[in-house]
């Protein structure tokens, strides 16, 4: 008998790649929660194993009976701001996972954000104290889920900077803005700053999640509750400038060093309003973690380098 997977946020960028990959590699029954079925750009009309549920996370309580029959749940849905962030990211997400039957559910995959972790993948208290509604709600939800009845089968994934999208898939926020970012490279190449980060493409996220939903328990499968930060190799701010300039055939010459002291001076001089969380991030500068990629699980990343992303910019 085919196993059942309940997916929230299915009409988003990551959701599209995940659905496509699950349809290709499994015979699972997919239950897709979408607010507007018209945003689902994958034709599932001839797929008897795909069930589209047009509703919002606010009404997740209406599906408790269905959720108790699920072997797998993948929650990618997110509220990005305002009160909705706490309702969706904390209250309704906790309600979703609380509805699972521990006797039936095999794996529960929760999408959080790497922003709430330090370089050793530990939760930082500042995320709850200073974070935006989105950050603070993710922080509160994780603490609750890791102490819940499904903690022994919970896998939390923390995407770093997410790129992705195509003609038949919605673009991530970063991919939407990539062309605009390139416009500023001719000026940004004269600046030098200390910082580093990771990125990951949505198709590589889909590869990893599909593996987690199909791999048997064993030495390669993560211990649970698990924290997996999804990202490619660390990039410095200088690497970013160099690779952007290579793509645009620009030279990197003399650079003015933009120190934290100088940034703080500019903020004060021009009386720029900066939230406490933004100040914390400016001081942090390095957003690096112990990351996993498709290679961690014996697969091959489709977008291992920034150059792979830039090659697709129209």
UniProtKB/TrEMBL annotation:
It comes from the Bacteria. Residues 5-217 form the NAD-dependent epimerase/dehydratase domain. GO terms for molecular function: aldehyde dehydrogenase (NAD+) activity. This is NAD(P)-dependent oxidoreductase. SUPFAM superfamilies: NAD(P)-binding Rossmann-fold domains. One of its GO terms (cellular component) is cytoplasm. The lineage of its organism: Bacteria, Bacillati, Cyanobacteriota, Cyanophyceae, Pseudanabaenales. It holds the Pfam family Epimerase. Gene3D superfamilies: NAD(P)-binding Rossmann-like Domain.
